[in-house]
Write a structure and sequence with these properties.
The protein is 26% helix and 20% strand. It has an eight-stranded mixed sheet with strand order 9-8-7-10-6-11-13-12, sandwiched between helices. Strands 2-1-3-4-5 form a five-stranded mixed sheet, with helices on both faces. The radius of gyration is 24 Å and the shape is elongated.
Amino acid sequence: MTTNTIDATADADVLSMRRAIELAARGPATGVNPRVGCVIRSADGEVIAEGWHRGAGTAHAEVDALSRLAAGAARGATAIVTLEPCNHTGLTGPCSEALIAAGVGRVVYAVADPGTRSSGGAERLRAAGVDVAAGVLADEVEAFLADWLFVARTGRPRITVKWAATLDGRAAAADGTSQWITGPEARADVHRRRADADAIAVGTGTVLADDPALTARTADGGPTAAQPIPVVFGRRPIPADSRVLRHPHEPIRLDGGDLSADLAELSARGIRSLFVEGGPTLASAFLAAGFVDELLVYLAPALLGGPRLAVGDLGIATIADARRLRFGAVEHLGDDLLVVAHPVESHRLAAHPLPASRAGSGAAPGAPGATSGAASGATIEGN
């Protein structure tokens, strides 16, 4: 193959991968399965089929594209796929075997499948004599699949913990009152971020004390089009007239006895991002366990004093063990400040990936690994 031919092939791969990303975007943005697109080019470079994944239990992108071709039409063709073809039988068969059976001669993909059971498709294809190239537009596909890849690699949703506090770190007055510490601009920002999350979490203590609706609302008080699923941690019963029970989505109840298991349950339900908005007990449990990826701290220019701190005991006995953060942004929101921070420690990522990422089998993912002493079996007391 001459240099010009090599360059032409590389250019065609990039163009086809961009089209595959466009196709992938047609699939559902939530759920346990990733959005995947596939373009099939004939041996002479003509696009002969396209496909994408439409959700758990439906044909994967590669099979969807192949289904549009007559028998034998894919022989010697190139398949360009956003994610490594799976090598696992779940609700559907392995895409690697489908490509081999169709006689595809070359496969190009952007990002490796991180699933411990569904990965290995590239190796299987190579073993069958298929030419395999990886990494085409990998950065773009990594960004496109960021939330799904995070769950697949860690076994849990991406977690944002939010609280509002006075300048001296108090989340409530001595009598327990806390509405409203911050002004309308800060509260509007919270609702915008709620709408962007798959789920919003509080403890039963917050439900009993504040009776929150846990909805995302617009500036005029109406509901946003997207609503996070409410998640309530704790063992105490929720009163029948609680506002959260009138939420558009049925609340998910988790007892909080083991945060690792609870987060694995949420990821098994297709929840990729969790917005933790409970009180100090819930925030402290997530922080102590190392299950926090982003902190949103809304600071009001006010002082309260007293015992009602925004964060409780984290099990830290000495300054050397302080949880270090890096600031991501500081924003003025009316009279208030929003401080965005991220943990420095790599232990915020759980150690074990899901056992099956693209299989769509409905099996629960593996529990996130405990990466600090507090993470294993972390519980939420007092809820």
